[in-house]
What does this fold into?
Amino acid sequence: MTTIGPTDATVGVDTTTPIVFVVDDDVSVRESLELLIQSAGWQVETFASADEFLSRGVPAVPNCLVLDVTLPGVSGLELQQQLADRRDMPILFITGYGDIPMSVKAMKAGAAEFLTKPFNSDVLLEAIRGAVERSREALRDAGESRILHTHYGSLTPREREVMALVVSGLLNKQVGGELGISEITVKAHRGQVMRKMQADSLAQLVTMAARLRARGPAPPRGLPL
It folds into this structure.
């Protein structure tokens, strides 16, 4: 199965402006959507098939995908399945042959919108605005998560053990008892943990631990389930 993920390949791309990708096998639809989307101030790239789109590396900038349901080869719904892990790429479906079961399936799979042709231009543009903002938030969250994991990766095995016990609510003396080390040593490790994780308070450290567990795919070693 071909998948697509963020890339740093940004040759010829203005990375400050969101990109709207359009996949539709009807050239007249692609051309009209390209003009409409450009008029709203976004970059736009059009593709005639899912395979053509999948061959394009996507830079890590706010974006969304305007996708026709009926395509030659890989269908729009099948492409949606392949992009299921791309939280930063909301999908807006457009179709001339939509029905309720199809739209329900698409929305349950995470589609941001499902529009039937002909659709109102303002409705589509508003849907794109919302999708681009969702993409921006997902990219921001992913960036913060990468930094958090980098900080956690800088901890020594002992510091991870201390962090796990501290965020579980144990006092320094109790942590020392659990690990068989002195309270002074626990304080030293705890200070290193706070510094490396760039946490200003215990509450912030607890929040960081929760995010590390949530972002997985498995809880980092040393953190309590």
